[in-house]
Design goal:
Blueprint: H1 3-22, H2 26-33, H3 37-44, H4 52-62, H5 66-70, E1 87-91, E2 97-105, E3 109-117, E4 122-125, E5 133-140, E6 142-147, E7 150-155, E8 159-163, E9 168-171, E10 178-185
Antiparallel strand pairs: 1-2, 2-3, 3-10, 4-9, 5-8, 5-10, 6-7, 6-9
Length: about 190
């Protein structure tokens, strides 16, 4: 079996599983994800190779991470993510970046990130769903965390936590690179009530 076939079968199984857990019909999930009912049927039958954009929409609608939807391991497990498998989602030419180190569902999406911001760089984030909490621990340099327009300085060795349902920005106004580890906890998507 090819890697693509394995991923399509995992996606089919996991979309069906999480749709059942959330109590969503095909029509409800299609509406929430802005994906056609026909596409969902093809995905749940492992008869198509959907775009990453479609998988992201479905994951967001189900309140689970992409890694959860594509996970082909079954049963209780310990999952080790090798350093070279961390996903870099943002970077700048100056050398700033973030990397998704690991993620799980507990009981909603929970992610751990590795960040590096070069002097003068910043990264803005839109508000997350109500109930989302972020925790940061600065290991090097100094973070300027701006939450809802208010600046908070977090020096090396310090940690901060905040409700992330308002605009927020991670910035480095210092003269040395800033490095931090961040955890993001998103509330679970609740079942639809009939």
């Amino acid at each position: 079996m090819s890697d693509l076939d394995l991923l399509n079968q995992s996606l089919a199984r996991n979309v069906k599983h999480w749709r059942s857990v959330r109590g969503f019909t095909l029509d409800v999930l299609a509406a929430r994800a802005a994906v056609s009912r026909g596409m969902l049927i093809q995905i749940e039958q492992a008869r198509t190779n959907p775009s990453i954009g479609t998988v992201v929409k479905i994951g967001d609608a189900l309140g689970v991470s992409i890694t959860t939807l594509l996970d082909y391991e079954q049963g209780p497990k310990v999952r080790i993510v090798p350093a070279d498998r961390a996903v870099r989602l943002w970077h700048t030419d100056a050398g700033s970046y973030n990397r998704l180190l690991a993620g799980t569902e507990a009981p909603g999406p929970l992610e751990m990130w590795d960040w590096r911001l070069m002097p003068g760089d910043s990264s803005a984030s839109e508000p997350h769903p109500t109930g989302t909490v972020e925790l940061v621990h600065v290991t090097t340099g100094e973070l300027t965390l701006t939450v809802d327009g208010e600046d908070h300085v977090v020096p090396a060795g310090a940690s901060a936590t905040f409700e992330a349902n308002t605009p927020h920005t991670y910035g480095n106004r210092g003269d040395e690179p800033m490095e931090m580890v961040m955890a993001v906890s998103v509330p679970p998507v609740h079942r639809e009530t009939p």
